[in-house]
Amino acid sequence: MRAVRMLMCFAAIMFVPGLCLSDDTGDSFFAPEFHFTLFGGAGLTGQSGNATHGGLHLGGSLEVITAVDFEHKQDAPFGLILEFGYAGPVNELGDGSALLSVNYAPELVLSHRKRLSLFATAGYTRLFGTGNALNYGGGLNFYNKGGTRALRLEVRDYLRFAGFKEHSAALRIGYLFCGHQQ
Hints:
Elements: H1 2-15, E1 33-47, E2 52-68, E3 78-89, E4 97-104, E5 107-109, E6 116-128, E7 131-143, E8 149-160, E9 166-178
């Protein structure tokens, strides 16, 4: 129950400030973009004192993002990601964990056509069956012409801090379904 309260407090701290954001004209109010992402990736998983094994990340995420667009100087970087999935070693899938993460994830639009963006992310992860973790990473989103879909390339690491220290890092590929049009 304590973990649920901490998760709710973290989500409130990350989400509420974004409601106050507007652009330079003062007549725009927090225009969020909603994304649903499916991802998969391969990498390395290792515990302190044990061998390193091939790792696997699979899952999905729900996202609320406001990207920084330097061309129009609007919005401040803000993003909240709720992620669910699996992370663990490939050779012993039963040693991995189901996971639920809450992350802060600002996004920066890099191209004048709004087809390329850079993002960073960090947050808390509950690894069911093995403990708690910090996760961090970043990557690029490549949007289609209409901005309704995107290909995501990212690097993500889950660092378990309860019990044995364990890293589960992976290069992930994702497909975004965007609830907006650019």
